[in-house]
Amino acid sequence: MSSAARFLTSAAQALSTMSLYEDGHPARDRAVDRAFGALLDLQDETLHVQLTFLGGEVLLGDRPVRELRGWEWGPRLAAGGIQRLEFRERVTRDDFEAFLDEAFARITGSPIQTAEVRQGRPSNIRYGGVGLTRDEDRSASAELEEELEVATLSYSLRDEIQGVEWLHDELREGEGLQLLEAEALVRSLSVAMHGDQAFFVPLVRLKEYDQYTVTHALNVSVLTMALAEFLGLTPTEVRAFGMAGLLHDLGKVKVPTDILHKPGKLTDGEREVINRHPADGARMILEAEENLDLAAVVAYEHHIHLDGGGYPSLRFKRGCHQASNLVHVCDVFDALRTRRPYRDAWSTEEALALIEAGAGREFDPDLAHAFTQMMHRWERRVTELSFDHPELPAHTKESPPAALPRSEPPPSPDRGSARKAPE
Fold this sequence. Notes:
The protein is about 50% helix and about 10% strand. The protein is an alpha+beta fold. The strands form 3 sheets. A 6-stranded antiparallel sheet has the order 3-2-1-4-5-6, sandwiched between helices. Strands 7-10 form a two-stranded antiparallel sheet. A two-stranded parallel sheet has the order 8-9. The longest helix has 20 residues, at about 25-45. The radius of gyration is 23 Å and the shape is elongated. The model is unreliable at about 110-120, about 130-155, about 395-400 and about 405-415 (pLDDT under 50).
């Protein structure tokens, strides 16, 4: 095993030990000592260590660490905002342990409690997203910053699109929900949102109507995580809400495509089939994993209005879970912004206007206002990608991706009715 693989394996073991033992426990200290010793051995070979975690690949400098191809901790570190990790010179054991503490907090979504320990102490450890490495002492040289800027990468959502297609195909074939793959998709989307020099919101634009269930699932997951972050929720809550957004329409895999893509008004029978998808989705989620109760609740409730309207109809009126209310706003926005067989796409401003108009009646007013505020404040961070070429361009804070268009041709009525939110 190479020195790089030995160090990363021992660092992962130390992180695992942290979940079992509190600070100061001998087992925890021994695990940190082993990882620190492996780091010193690696630095004996290469003083300036630069590690990058991209998908299933681990790179030491620009060379792959072949023993760690498909290493499960790479995506976990990347999802925690550590896509690149550098040890520029020799580091102290205290600084290394402080880094492990923060890495553990980022991965698990627990509070970070190491800032006070680091305050006033220089560190040669740098970490962050590809193209943006966090300098703990904020004293990086201009030469190194230029080097990192050159290394900025574009990011593709092609794997995520194929992943959602595969999940839906498995369900249609009766194989059940593949939970690990769904969790990996949410983490990967989180990396895509944070993996460059500015946080941004990548949305996929469909080309053909039969791509709708895939693009809509991805977009609602991304919008849900963006709004959860905008509201200041914890990383754990953000990912849980992102999972709920990804799975909210799962029941539609049981709806015949001729009904989903029907250009005209639905018959009563077809409407009944559509209205069953929330209950079907909740049932499929719970059959796969009882601990996904939040996602199941959202799947069941995401079409229920604040005033009790929508569907399914509740026998006893009650409020919905806040996650359901949040996903409902994101669901309607993306549905309106998407071209459907029975209407054209709405412009961003028209969709936001409908959400504002429905605040207090269909939508939770605080969430509706927060979503509108987020979209206006982060307008330049929202970018639309082609389904066929879902490549996120490399960009910086000074040059963010192009925003969604603000004006388009007026939309056609929704299934022959007055202008309203979609199903």
